[in-house]
Each structure stands twice: as C-alpha cells, then as structure tokens.
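Ticket #4471: structure export looks truncated?
Reporter: QA, pipeline team
Priority: medium

Steps to reproduce: submit the single chain below to the structure queue and open the exported record.
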Amino acid sequence: MLKRNIPEFLASIFMALLLLGGYAMRGQMPWPTHYPTPRSHVQPRFLLEVETPRGTLTVGNHGEISGLQQGRLGETDLNDLRLAAQLLKPAKGGGTWKLRFYDAEGAHESSFDPARADAETRHVLENLRILGYLEMEPVHQQAGQSRPQ
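Actual output as written to the record:
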C-alpha cells in the first residue's frame, strides 16, 4: 500500500517546495505597472464628534446620533453634514468645546469657543442645532447681534 502512494507523496512535496520558492521570491518581483501602489487608508470611526461642557454628541458614518441626543439623520441631512465636515480644517484654537473629525490624513481634534469658531465649524454646529441634536444659542444671538431681516 505504501508503494502505491509514493508517487503522489513525492508530487505533493515537490508542489509544496515550488510554492515555498515562489513565496520566498515575491519581494524580487516588480509591481505590475497598471496597478496602483497600495497606500494606507484611513477608516473613520465616526463622521463628527462634538464635545460640549454638557456631554458628547457623536454623528456616526451612516447618520446615527448618539451621546447627548439619540436619533438618526435622514439621507439629505447626512449628505449636507458630510459635505460640511469635508470642509473642516484642523485648528489650533482654545476653548471649552471640542470637535473631532476625519479627513484623508487621519483623525483631528479642534478645541474652540462657539462664539469665536471659524465659519466651517459654525456651519456644522448650526446644522446640528437646527436639526435639534445640539442645544446652543443661534450664532447671531451669541454675538449680541439682532436677527437678520
């Protein structure tokens, strides 16, 4: 019985050696020119996270809201918020509020004061306030201005 299986056994050993040899030489093979070079990809855990003195509000990648309020954004509101979040830039400000977001370079955190935040940050906060998920005074009332006519 053993003599009958020797050719198959030797063939399997030969195939295993060929596979090991090919695996060992894979670093010497040039990359195909029509394939892009692999790059690291940032996988965002959430779309936005706003930390206020009252607590943290997290907007998930698919529109789920958790933290201070619970809920789910509609498709249009989520797209608007996603477009506004893409315009955010990391800032070195100071304040009691924090905004965390992701871009192509990775995760970022900005601390700010809502009354003195940049235009992109104010736009995101105003969207969340209008949707009823973030409690804060409207921007024109914070600055002591009258309501625009």
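Status: closed, not a bug. The export was complete when the record was re-opened. Leaving a note from the reviewer for reference: Residues 81 and 124 are 7 Å apart (CA to CA).
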